Amino acid sequence: MSNSTVVVVTGVSSGIGRAAAEKFAKRGCRVFGTVRSIAKAAPLPGVELVEMDVRDDASVKTGIQSIIDRAKRIDVLVNNAGMSLIGAVEETATAEAASLFDTNVLSILRTAQAVLPHMRAQRSGRIVNVSSVLGFLPAPYMGLYSASKHAVEGLTESLDHEVRQFGIRATLVEPSFTRTNLDINAPQASSKIADYDRERALASSAVVDSVKGAPEPDGVANAIIEAALGTWRMRRTPAGQASLLSKLRRFMPAGPVDASLRKSFGLG
């Protein structure tokens, strides 16, 4: 793709989305970054901010149309906006699960449906969905988050089959823990069950420690750039822990993988 590529990145207020938007701009792309409130968002050099709530149908339609009105096309959509949730499956309320899926899964459906008519008309485009290693390696006490990322994986693969006839491809980026506020400030299920207290505390502490020791978002942002502008591949796992976990999941027997995962969450 050329330097005139028009890129939309959702959730650029901080973390991975912000780092990716900055890198696209440095590549010479015209970059639009979505935020829930422009008034509260810090400016990003080279990035045009668009107020858009990915959880709201009308907001997404209005936001995407405003970009089309200005740029006349969208070449790349990066679905990065997301949230996390810590808690045992049994103690997670359906309302909490619904909110999580609305942000992590239905937001992708909304933005994809908003950009695809334009991509189909131009017979080209790339949709990059940020998933997680938990999309192929579910973790204890992150069951609903893992489920949402499994949904992202399935949606993306199906979408890619459907839209490639129009010159459009969909692809996944699967990061591991990254030093952002997503997991370190992850909300916990509100209706706690005492029987899970000990293990939940261990798992939560393991997540916080992993995030504190994790790399900065730059590595994930680089993977997003390659997924968006490079040769198409179905999935990219950033170098480091994410790449290692992907290989372990594919090539190691299930028993050792299970034991290693439990140990990493402090469950022995």
TrEMBL record:
InterPro entries: NAD(P)-bd_dom_sf (IPR036291), SDR_fam (IPR002347), SDR_oxidoreductase (IPR051911). The keyword Oxidoreductase applies. It comes from the Bacteria. SUPFAM superfamilies: NAD(P)-binding Rossmann-fold domains (SSF51735). CDD domains: 17beta-HSD-like_SDR_c (cd05374). The keyword Transferase does not apply. Keywords: Oxidoreductase. Signal peptide: none annotated. GO terms for molecular function: oxidoreductase activity. Pfam families: adh_short (PF00106). NCBIfam families: PRK06179.1. Belongs to the short-chain dehydrogenases/reductases (SDR) family. This is Short-chain dehydrogenase/reductase. It comes from Trinickia symbiotica.
